[in-house]
């Protein structure tokens, strides 16, 4: 898709991070956009910053993409508010962290994370595929993660998130042949971002009901304590509740503020990939390095003494050292 001018796009997770930047860039190029998110205030911020060009429109929609009924309502709202019978671009970008351990994380948090990160992609693809097919040209863009080909190293499990992102990767690759046979004018792209400076860790706490670390439940504290211990090297029993809360707050801020790529830079890479028609978009030097390392020696990346991880992460690996 060489140009976005005059096209119609839907962006999930459009209230912040890469989703917001995708909305802003698409609108500035004359593409009408329907942005959805769980956070009404964040959506309002996106709409306020958007500067649609050439008659394009930006609409905002509250939607929990893990809920199929809400996604169906979103689709109907897009059709009605944009007076359209087609969609050219669907960016399945919404995601949330949490459910790090299958053993220690609260089950509700694990399942909520999986339902958003994978279920949202599935629900939106089901709902909007007929509208993509109805367009002269369509592009389905599914955002996975480097954790869709590497599930995290020893001491840093990312169980629910990685399982969901692996599912997104497999689903997207399966569509390559499916679309070629059944809807050859619709393309699909798999986006694999590395570390991008978003507020996903901070926003994830809000989704799981503990936006303020002070509001974390005993179960959430226990789960966070295990991760804080792995990162700090301090035995879990030696960490007070206050130390765990401080670590959780610091992790979210550090992830946002000390990333190699900004959300705007990541969005530019994604859109350049869509323009080029590529089906696999690696976002960031770390994504490319992990991809190459996994292909070269997948066993190495799961060893606690992995020289590859030590090279990639420096003094951040192994956890606690």
UniProtKB/TrEMBL annotation:
It comes from the Bacteria. Keywords: Oxidoreductase. Residues 7-195 form the Ketoreductase domain. InterPro entries: KR_dom, NAD(P)-bd_dom_sf, SDR_fam. It holds the Pfam family adh_short. One of its GO terms (molecular function) is oxidoreductase activity, acting on the CH-OH group of donors, NAD or NADP as acceptor. Belongs to the short-chain dehydrogenases/reductases (SDR) family. This is Short-chain dehydrogenase/reductase SDR. It comes from Nonomuraea gerenzanensis.
């Amino acid at each position: 898709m060489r140009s976005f001018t005059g096209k119609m796009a839907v962006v999930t997770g459009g209230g912040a991070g890469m989703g917001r930047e995708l909305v802003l860039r698409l609108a500035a190029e004359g593409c009408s956009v329907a942005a959805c998110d769980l956070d009404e205030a964040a959506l309002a911020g996106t709409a306020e910053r958007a500067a649609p060009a050439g008659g394009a429109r930006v609409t905002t929609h509250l939607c929990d993409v893990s809920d199929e009924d809400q996604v169906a309502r979103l689709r109907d709202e897009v059709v009605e508010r944009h007076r359209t019978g087609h969609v050219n671009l669907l960016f399945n970008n919404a995601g949330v962290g949490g459910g790090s351990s299958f053993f220690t994380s609260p089950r509700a948090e694990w399942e909520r994370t999986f339902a958003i990160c994978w279920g949202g992609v599935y629900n939106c693809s089901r709902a909007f595929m007929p509208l993509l097919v109805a367009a002269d040209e369509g592009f389905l863009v599914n955002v996975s993660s480097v954790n869709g080909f590497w599930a995290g190293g020893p001491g840093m499990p990312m169980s629910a998130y990685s399982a969901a992102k692996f599912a997104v990767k497999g689903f997207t690759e399966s569509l390559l042949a499916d679309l070629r046979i059944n809807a050859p004018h619709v393309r699909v792209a798999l986006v694999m971002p590395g570390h991008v400076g978003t507020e996903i860790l901070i926003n994830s706490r809000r989704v799981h009901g503990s936006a303020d670390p002070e509001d974390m439940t005993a179960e959430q504290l226990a789960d966070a304590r295990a991760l804080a211990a792995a990162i700090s090297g301090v035995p879990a029993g030696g960490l007070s509740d206050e130390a765990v809360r401080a670590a959780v707050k610091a992790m979210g801020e550090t992830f946002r503020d000390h990333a190699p790529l900004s959300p705007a830079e990541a969005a530019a890479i994604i859109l350049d990939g869509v323009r080029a028609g590529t089906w696999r978009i690696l976002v960031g030097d770390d994504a490319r390095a992990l991809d190459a390392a996994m292909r070269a020696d997948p066993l190495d990346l799961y060893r606690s003494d992995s020289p590859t991880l030590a090279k990639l992460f420096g003094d951040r690996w192994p956890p606690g050292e």
